[in-house]
Amino acid sequence: MDTPPTSGLIDALRALWGAAATTLLAAVLGRLVYHSGEARAGRRPWIGWHLIWEVPTAVAMALVAESLAQYLGLSPQVTTGVVAVLSYLGPRGARDIVESTIGKAKR
Prior knowledge:
The chain is an all-alpha fold and 107 residues long. 76% of the residues lie in helices and 0% in strands.
């Protein structure tokens, strides 16, 4: 069986694991990048039970990001990027972006 050629890493991951797994991987990697920045800055330890709380955060942010991407009609590749970015930002970062956007719209 010949597999169709992929156009990049995201397409390859989607073909290998499926869209849901790729989305969750992007979300977990986004949270991992955020955590590593916090640990390097000394604001949290590298390893510990606190990492358990990153899992529901990653899943929730993946759901929010996929919903937003579908609402905006973005391609699957762009959706994966939006998931990673919003997962990195987390709920507080997403709230700050929404509040600043609404504040600019009111001016």
